[in-house]
Amino acid sequence: MTATSEEHAALRIASGRKAFVEPLCLGERLKQIRLANQWTLEDVSQRTGLARSTLSKIENDQVSPTFSVVQKLTTGLNIDLPQLLTPPKRERYTMGRRDLTRRGKGQLHPTPTYEHELLGHQLAQKRMIPFKTIVRARSFDEYHQWVRHDGEEFLMVLHGDIMLYSEFYAPLMLAEGDSIYFDSDMGHALVSTSAEDAIVLSVCTRGDEG
């Protein structure tokens, strides 16, 4: 049976090793529990028998509590060890950003093989990069090297048919409505195989997010 992270943490407390306390943000977790119950430091002090100054130092990560102190906290606050060791929940704030791109109003980046139209291009620090592409290439020989970039990519064929060449797989035919998700640091290239140039929609993750 594999031990859970809580069990690992408990074992590390019992062995007298204190390094686990800081990565788990025990002080922040203690403060979160105290505030959720509307307790003052004095309230917690009375419940646990620990001095207010000690509790304050724990909450501010100025000291690492010993195993006996942790026992007093769990007993006095009527919580179990996993509750105390659970990482504190982080508040999430939404910025409510949005960036509308009207039809044909994206930022154009033509190349010999592709004609990219970046979508949502006015929004900075995006986690994803969406773009629509007209695939001009008609033969794999038109590529002098593989296309590759950091992150991951989702691709859907909006119009026409394409052949997807990739570094580690056999060429793959994709028709209108087909989609594929792949690691974009793997060499890849698109070729239109339909009568008209194919159009695809791609969404790439940024390299530092992928």
From TrEMBL:
PANTHER family tied to this protein: BLR4304 PROTEIN, HTH-TYPE TRANSCRIPTIONAL REGULATOR
A GO term, aspect molecular function: DNA-binding transcription factor activity
Region forming the signal peptide: none
Nucleotide-binding keyword on record: no
Highest taxon above the source species: Bacteria
The protein's name in its UniProt record: XRE family transcriptional regulator
HTH cro/C1-type domain residues: 30-84
Keyword entries, A-Z: DNA-binding
Organism per entry: Vreelandella nanhaiensis
Coiled-coil annotated spans: none
SUPFAM superfamilies: lambda repressor-like DNA-binding domains, RmlC-like cupins
